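User: For a reading group we're discussing how well predicted structures match intuition. Take Laminin G domain-containing protein. Before you show the prediction, I'll give you the sequence so everyone sees exactly what went in.
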Amino acid sequence: MTMSHYTAISIKKVKTSLSADGKCVKKFRPMTQPGTINSIRFAFKTSRPGQDMMMVLLQNQGISNGDTEKEFLAVELRDGRVRFTWNVGGGIGVVTDNKKVVSEVSTIKESEKWYRVKAERIGGLGRLTVHRLSDTAGAPITNTSTVGFSLMGLDDTTDIFVSGVPQDVIVYPSLTSRNFSGCMGDMHIDETLVGLFNFERNTMDSCSACLEVPSQPPAANVYSFDGTGYAVTDKNRFLSPLIANIILDFKTYWDNASLFFVGNPQTSEFMAIELENGFVVFKYYLGQGSYGRIQSEMKYNRNQWVSVAAAHSGLLAVLEVSKVESLITQGNPGDHLLNVSMNDLFFGGIPPSVNLDIYRKGSGHHVSGDSFLGCMRSLQLSSNAVNLWDGKSTIGVLEGCKESGLRSIGFYGSGFAEYQGVSMISSESDLSISFSTTEPDGLLLLAKNVNGDSYYSLVLKDGLVYGKFSGGRNPISINSKERYNDGKVHTVAVRKLDRKIEIYVDDKVVATGNLDRQLRDIAVREDGGLYLGGVPEGLNVDDQAETSKSLDGCLSDVVINRGILNINQPKKYDRADIGRCKLMEMQHDRMLVDPEPPLASDAPSNISPSQPPAANVYSFDGTGYAVTDKNRFLSPLIANIILDFKTYWDNASLFFVGNPQTSEFMAIELENGFVVFKYYLGQGSYGRIQSEMKYNRNQWVSVAAARSGLLAVLKVSKVESLITQGNPGDRLLNVSMNDLFFGGIPPSVNLDIYRKGSGHHVSGDSFLGCMRSLQLSSNAVNLWDGKSTIGVLEGCKESGLRSIGFYGSGFAEYQGVSMISSESDLSISFSTTEPDGLLLLAKNVNGDSYYSLALKDGLVYGKFSGGRNPISINSKERYNDGKVHNVAVRKLDRKIEIYVDDKVVATGNLDRQFRDIAVREDGGLYLGGVPEGLNVDDQAETSKSLDGCLSDVVINRGKANCILNINQPKKYDRADIGRCKLMEMQHDRMLVDPEPPLASDAPSNIRMLEVEPMSRKVKPTKNSLQDKMGTPTSGPTPCATVARSVDFQVDALTFGEADMSFHQINTSKKEILRKFEISLDFRTFYQNGLLIYLSNLDHTEFVAAQIKDHVLVLVLTRNDDIKVVTVNTSTSLADGQWHNVKVDKNLQRISVVVDGNEENMGSRKIAKVLKVEPPLFIGGVPSSFKPLLNENVVAHSVRGCIRGLKIDGDSRPSSEATLASGVEKCYAKVEKGAYFNGEAWGLYDDKFSVGQKFKMELDFRTNKADGILVNITSQNLKNSIGLEISKGKVIFTAVIAGQQFSLKSQNGFCDNVWHKVKVGMEKRTIAMQVDDGEIYQDTLAGDITLSNLRAPLYLGATPDVFAKVASSRHRGYQGCMRDVIINNKQVNWFDLQRSFSLQKTACPVA
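Assistant: Thanks. Here is the predicted 3D structure of Laminin G domain-containing protein, as C-alpha cells, for the group to look at:
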C-alpha cells in the first residue's frame, strides 16, 4: 500500500498496525534519549512461529563485525519463542519467554491470535512479559547483563528498525537478520506510540496495512497532554460577541500552563484560562483597554480533577472552580464585545505560529504560551460538548488519562518531592538516578528511617558526587574525584554488596566504602521519607546528607532495587516540576519536556490531522430500540458481543438476535438489575448465565458475552467472569440473515415464538439509559448506519428524566433547594391509590427549617417552618384516586399557598421573624419517602413511603436548574428512576416487586423455598443432637408492629466503623505545651480504643489517652522513657454507658480522671514543656500514623461514640474539626451488637469447612418479616446451609446435591425482641431451637452429608448469587445481631475477613 493510498482511505487516524510478508522493513526516526530505562511494547500475530525473525531492533549507528561494546535492544522470535536481548556496553543480556507462540492459522478467536510483548531494561536488568491478548499478563521473566553497566547512550543517532533489518545493516552476531512475517501493532518505544506508517525509510515497499490490534474503544473523551503540544479546533466557536462561556476539567502537577485560548490577531482581543503558579486564572481583553482578570484563591496543581467554569458577559466575568470558589469581576471600561467568531480555539497549548506578542502588547498584560502536561475532560463551549478529535489537529495529545510513566522532575533551588521509601536490606541492592545541573551544590536523593540513624543519600557538593550511608551506626561518606555540574545528563548509581558500597557515575566506579559489620542493612521508612531534590523546610538532615541545599536542575530515571520510581505519585511536594525540567535559559534557550520524541518528517503518531470521535455513544429513552443489519453473525458456531451500558432500570433488553423460523436466539438482558446472557440453539439446547451482582446503579458497565457451540462466557466490568455449558442439543446458531436489536425489540417481532421454542422467558422491555462501545465479532457497530432507530439519541443524556416510581418502601434523595427569596415556588405531580404517602420533604441539618408535602387519608398536607412556629395546612378534598394530580406551593414573603390542579386548596403564614426556609443544599431533599431510621415526624404529616408515581418536580422556576434532575439522586433505594409502573388493578399489568422471586427459567440447580419445609417437633432422646440444644419451652408470640424511627445523639459522633477514624482539631502550640485540660465523653462496648492523641512529627514524643482492656490508660513519653498511668475503675468502661475522661497537665504533672471521681484518678510527673506539636487528634489517628505509633499505643480508633469535647473548659463542637475521616452520626440509644441495614453483610471465613459436626448460635432482634441470617453455599450452588427469617419464622435449610431439607419454627420472631437461635448438624442430622422453645430435627435421606462442604460463610445479607439457594425471599437481614458463636468460637465483628455497610460498634434502639 502506498502512503498516498493509505492516507486516502484513513485520513483521520494514524495507522498503528502493519502487515509484513518477510520482506517489509521500516526504519523510524529516533525517539529515545540517554538513560537507565528503556521499554518496547507491541502486539503481533504470525502464521510462521517456527521461523527465526527480527521484530524490533534499536541500535546505535556504525556497528561493525566483532563489535561487542555497541549498545542495542532487540526483540526477536527465536525457536518459536520471544527473546529480548540487550547490550549496555559491557556484554549482552538475554531473556527468553518460556511459551511457544502458536500460529494464527490454528486459532479462531482474534484475541487468541495476537500476542502482547513488553520488554523493559532497567539498568542491567531485563524484564520480558509475553501473553495472548485473551489472557492476563503473568509475572515477567528477568535476567541481568554485566554488572556495573546501566547507562545506555541511545540518542538522536540511534536507528530503530521494525519487522526486520535492511541487508546493508550489520547486527550483533547472536541476533537474527531474518525479516518478520505477520502483523504488528500498538507499538510503543520508551512509552511513545509509534505510528507504523510514519516511517523515515521503507525497504522494498512490501508493507501493507493490517487489522488494528483488537481492543475496546476508549470509554469517553478524556485527553492526555504530554506537555509538548496542543489541540486546535474550529468547532463550537463563540458566535455571540457579547457572551461566551467555557467549561473543562483538568488535572496536573504543573504550576504554569495554557488550558484554553482564543484570540483575534486583527484586534488583539482574546479570552484565556491559564495556570499561573498553580492558581487558575481567567483573563480576557475586548479591545479599547477593556481588560479583565480573575484568579482563584487556592492552588489546583495537586493532580486531582478540577472543574473550571468561566464566562464573560460584556465586561462582567465569572470564574467557578470545583464548586469551591465562585469569583466575579468587572473588566476595565472599554469595548463590551469579543469578536472571535471566525478564530480557532486552542486547548493545552498554543502553536508557535500564533504570535502571542500581538495579544500581550494589545492588552498590556502577559499571555501564557506554555504547553500543558496532564489530563482534560468534559470540555464545553457555550453549552456544547467539544470533541478534540473532530477538530483541526492535535499534537502531543493522546486518548485517555496517562496516570504513570513520567520519568523527569525539575527543581529550581527551593523545592522537594517526597515518595515512598525503599530499603536496601538484601545482600545485593542498587539504586540509580540521572541528573543535570550547573550548580555546584544540591541534594539529589535521600531516604531515611524515623530515627534518622539508618539512611542513604546522594548529593552534589562543590560539583562532586557524595554518598552517605548508615545501617544504624558508624555512617560512611564517600565521594567522586571529578565534578559533574556541567549541565550534561549524568547517571549516578549505587551498588550495595552485603556491606560493601560502590558508587558509579556514567558506568564508572568513582568511590567505594564499607558499612558497619553488625549493621549492614539500610532500613528506611516505606510510607514516605524518600526525598528528591531537597527536603521540607524545618527538616534537619545535616547528619544524613552532605548538603540539604535544594537542587537547581533536573532528575530522572530513578530506579531502586530494579524498581522504577513512579514520578507521578509523590506523597508530598512543593515547587517541583513533576514530569518536566526547564533547564537554565542560558544553557538551552528552550524547555526540555519528558518525554521528548523528535518529530518524524511525516508527523509523529500522536499528531492527527483530524481524528474521529472516541466512541459512538447512544441514549435510549425507554420507549424504542435500534435495528441494524450490519455486522451480522456469519459463523453459526461462534458469536461474541461487547457493549457498555449505564442505567437505573431493573429490567430491559440490551441486545437480541433471533431466527423466527427456528426459534433460535441470543440475548443480553437486565433481570432485576442482574446482567443475563441467554441463548437457544434449537433441539432443547438452552443456556443461561447471570451475573452475581446487580449493575443498575447508573455507572458505566462493560459486558462481553461469547458463545462457541454450547459453551458460553459472560464477563462484566472485569469484575466477574462466568462460564456455562448449555443443555445438550444443536450447537449452531443460524441467525446470519437476521437483524440485530439493541435497547429493545419492535412490536412486530413475535417474542412468543422464542419463548415457546426455548421454554424460557425472553424480555421485550425497552431500555432507558446509555450505551457505547458496541462490537460484534470484534467489529465496531455504528447504530446510525443500521436500518432504523426509535427513541435513540446521540450522546448520553444525563438529564431530562421526569418520572420516578415508588412501591411502598423506597426513597430518593437529591440536593436541597431553599425557599428564601420573597417569592418562591415548587410543584410536583403525583398519582396513587393509597391514602398515605410522603411526596416531598426538604429540611436543614437541625430539622427546624423545612417544607414538606404528603398525602394523609387522601388529603394533601403541607408543613412549613423557617426556624420556629411551624404551620401545617391541608386540602379538604382527597386525591388518592389513581389519577395524575399536580400540587404546587407558592411562597409570597411569609404567605404560603397550596394549589392542587391549579386551584387554591389551603393557605397559611410563616412566623414573622422566620419567613425564609433554608434547607441543606448538599442533600436532604427526599422524594417518596425517607431512609429507615430517619425520624421526620416533626417535619411531615407522615413518613410512610409512597406507593405511586412522582414526576415534574420544579422548585423556584425562575432560577436556573429549577427542574429537579431525576437522573442524579444522591442516594436511593427501591425507587424506579425514570419510570413508574402503576398498580396492577389500575392498569391491568404486573407491578414488579422490588425483589421478586426467581423467574421460572432459573437454572435447574437453583431451588426456591416455595413449599412448606419439613419440620417436626421431637422429644429429647439420649445422646441425640437436640440434647445439646437445651430444654424446650413455649415460643414467643407472632410478629408485632414496632416503631421504625431512631434518634441521634446531639453533637455526638461514632468512631471506629473505619479502622482509623478520627477528628483533627487545630490548637495553638501555646495551648498544649505547658498547661492544658482536655475532656470528653465516650461510650463503647469494646475493650480497646484510642481517645486522645498528641505527638511530635516522628511520634517519638506523645501523650495518648486510651481504653485498654476496658480500663483507662494514659501513655506518654518523658525523657525518652515510656510512662504508663492506669486508672482502675469499679466497673468496666466498655459497658455501653457514657463516661467522662479528663486529661489535665499543669506544669510538671499530668493527671487523668474518669467520670469526675477523684478515686478514679492517676497522675505522673512530666516535663515542664511537652515536645509535641499541634494538631490534636480525637477518637483515633490517620492510617499513615499507624507504622509510627509506639507499641504501647492502641493502634485503632475507639469503637463507639464521643461527645462534649472541651479544651481548657471551652466547648469544641464537632463542626470545628479541620479534618475528619470515618466518622458517622451517633445513635441516642444503643445495645451491644451489630446492625444490618438490609444490604449489609459480613464474611466470616471465605473457606469455611463444615466438617462432620457443625454448631452455631446467635442472638437476633428484628421487626422485619424476611431476612438472611447465615449462609454457606458452594460455588456450583448445589450444596448449602442457610439460616433465615421468612414471614417472621425462623428456617434452617440444608441443600445437598440439589436436595433440600428444612426446619421451620411454628412461631414468629420479628417482634423486635432479642431471641437466641441454635442450629447444628452432625453427620446426617440437622436440628434447630429458638430461645428455649421446641427443638426441630430432621435426618437426611441416604448417606449424603455436607461434611465436605468448604465455602464462604456469610452473616446477614449475601452476595446475590449465593442467596438463591438457602433463602426463600433472597432479602438481606435488617436488624441487630450479637453473641454469634460458630463451632464454640465467638465472632468478633472487627475480625471479619470482609464486610459491607455493617455497623459494628453498636446496635440502635428506637
